[in-house]
Design goal:
Elements (H helix, E strand, L loop, with lengths): L5 H4 L3 H36 L7 H17 L4 H4 L2 H18 L5 H29 L5 H9 L1 H20 L6 H17 L16 H5 L5 H28 L7 H28 L2 H21 L4 H29 L2 H31 L4 H6 L2 H10 L3 H11 L3
Helix pairs in contact: 2-6, 2-8, 2-9, 2-11, 3-6, 3-15, 5-6, 5-9, 6-15, 7-12, 7-14, 8-12, 11-12, 11-14, 11-15, 11-17, 11-18, 12-13, 12-14, 13-14, 13-17
């Protein structure tokens, strides 16, 4: 059984499958919720007189909330159980997302999106850790990636549904879907997920696991994991936040840009599963290095080519899809870098550091647009964080060796 958790032994196969389906829906709700603000922003200039550039802090403070909750609140799941935190996070997301539909000023959007971020940051690290605990050991990364595919799927569905929803009930309708879904999930998860703290075959959990992660020997794996996560998150939120605004300036229609966002996420979903399967079956370090290398090449090609919807669509599918894939694969990789007793904390603290990078993404994008960057220049900027993340992944072999040495079981 190796790393199998007691939570698996105490659940029937059908209940475990249902739990994984519900956890996947939490990811879906997260992806949808993260995307709707970016899709709503270009439409609010006409509806409320708010220019898209004014939403930089709205995008970023959502991530601040996610990061703080991921570092401070989410690790409590390692000690007291994951069900309560996941369900409570969903309730907060539901209330704050539905309230966003009533906002009319930037300060109101900031308040409600920050609270949304706190809810997401509370539940998502525990969702990831619980998925790892329910997965068969030899398929951890693959199954974690399959479940987390709910995020790009949610992003994609948000992109595809935006035109008909806005045409039917206005921009406010964009926030109704994730808000209602989060409330229904909170109720279902409470009855399906196991209660109590996670029980593992590992040593007793540290009293302050955050400190253990930044101390030897775990500091190297955590630095590699968090560094790559932060740079990829910067790229992902830079692109997802502003692509619906940037592409219409390069010859795309507003609706085609929104729908391309959906396509990018679906491709990222497939790429994320493929990358995670390679982590399970091939070499984790080579897989991640190649993923980031391909992204660098595609962003550079966009920067060097004139705007062309057909050519740019292909390049964006590979580059932005690669960023989505890396966002799925890196948390899955965490299950190989850290023992179960540290997994939820590592993901939560990693999310916090990742959000520091992600917070910069929308702000950097807003600054580039304010400075008059062309669509080529804006999209080519994605090559920089992808290239640095590729260099960080050169440290993965040494990082993976730490767990094999410290906790060989």
């Amino acid at each position: 059984m190796g790393e199998l958790h007691e939570v698996q032994k105490g659940m029937s196969p059908s209940r475990r499958i249902l739990a994984l389906v519900l956890l996947t829906l939490v990811y879906f709700m997260d992806g949808y919720d993260l995307m709707v603000m970016a899709l709503a922003a270009p439409r609010l200039q006409g509806a409320l007189g708010l220019p898209p550039e004014a939403f930089s802090w709205v995008f970023s403070l959502l991530l601040v909330g996610m990061g703080i909750a991921g570092a401070v609140v989410a690790p409590l799941g390692d000690r007291f159980g994951r069900r309560t935190l996941i369900a409570a996070g969903c309730v907060l997301v539901s209330v704050a997302t539905l309230a966003t539909a009533s906002a009319t000023t930037i300060p109101e959007f900031i308040v409600w999106r920050t609270l949304t971020g706190i809810g997401l940051g509370t539940c998502l690290p525990n969702v990831t850790a619980l998925t790892a605990e329910l997965a068969p050991p030899r398929l951890k990364a693959t199954l974690m990636s399959v479940c987390s595919a709910g995020i790009p799927l949610g992003l994609a569905v948000a992109g595809y549904l935006t035109p008909p929803i806005v045409d039917t009930i206005g921009w406010q309708g964009l926030f109704f879907v994730p808000g209602i879904l989060a409330a229904l999930l909170a109720l279902a998860l409470w009855f399906v997920l196991p209660g109590g703290p996670p029980e593992t075959v590992d040593a007793k959990p540290a009293k302050v696991p955050q400190v253990e992660l930044v101390s030897r020997p775990w500091v190297l794996p955590f630095a590699v994991f968090a560094g790559a996560l932060a740079l990829n998150a910067l790229n992902l939120y830079l692109l997802n936040s502003w692509i619906p605004t940037v592409l219409p300036r390069a010859g795309f229609t507003m609706d085609s840009a929104a729908q391309l966002v959906g396509t990018l996420q679906l491709v990222g979903l497939a790429m994320g599963i493929a990358v995670s399967a390679l982590i399970d079956r091939w070499r984790a370090s080579a897989t991640m290095i190649l993923t980031f290398l391909v992204m660098v090449a595609c962003f550079a090609a966009i920067g060097l080519s004139p705007p062309d919807p057909d050519r740019w669509t292909v390049l964006l599918i590979v580059s932005v899809g690669g960023a989505s894939a890396a966002g799925m694969a890196l948390p899955a990789l965490a299950s190989y870098l850290f023992p179960p007793r540290l997994l939820g904390t590592a993901i939560g603290l990693g999310v916090f550091i990742g959000r520091v990078g992600a917070i910069g993404g929308p702000l950097i994008g807003g600054a580039l647009l304010t400075a008059g960057a062309t669509p080529n220049q804006f999209l080519a900027a994605g090559a920089v964080p992808a290239g640095i993340a590729m260099l960080i992944c050169l440290g993965l072999p040494a990082a993976l060796a730490v767990r094999k040495r410290e906790e060989p079981a």
